Amino acid sequence: MFNLDRFAIDGGRHFPQIVIDEDASTAAGTARFRAGCTCGRMPQHLVDAREQALAAHLAHATAKAGPSKGPKWLPSGVRVVILVVAMLMVWGACYATGQIVAHGQDLTGATAKAVFGGSHLAGLALAFGLMVAVRRYIAPTRA
Does pTM top 0.70 for this prediction? Predict the structure, then answer.
């Protein structure tokens, strides 16, 4: 239903899976190898020699996970801290707005609690929406 693999962050676990493809070997009359990777992201390569299969896997394993779209001069740890601060500012603005509306309109009882709770939830939703929107700028992902 959903392909969540495209959002997986590369964990660096790449082990070759090289097998002899019997169907292709029979058709060609010589041994044909099929190269794969334990990460499950490498497309199956059909090659003539084991060395070619190892070279195909090595090219896959040494490929970068994908460029981070964030600034190159800014480490990802700093980007995470900036994201957390931005999320707190968004939530804090909604929290303050709820306080101002609840107390500024002289709301009492259940109405004040509803306004305050709604602004609280809106702030959390906006903060986590911000996190989802900028996730590609924080850490490199693999497509």
Answer: no
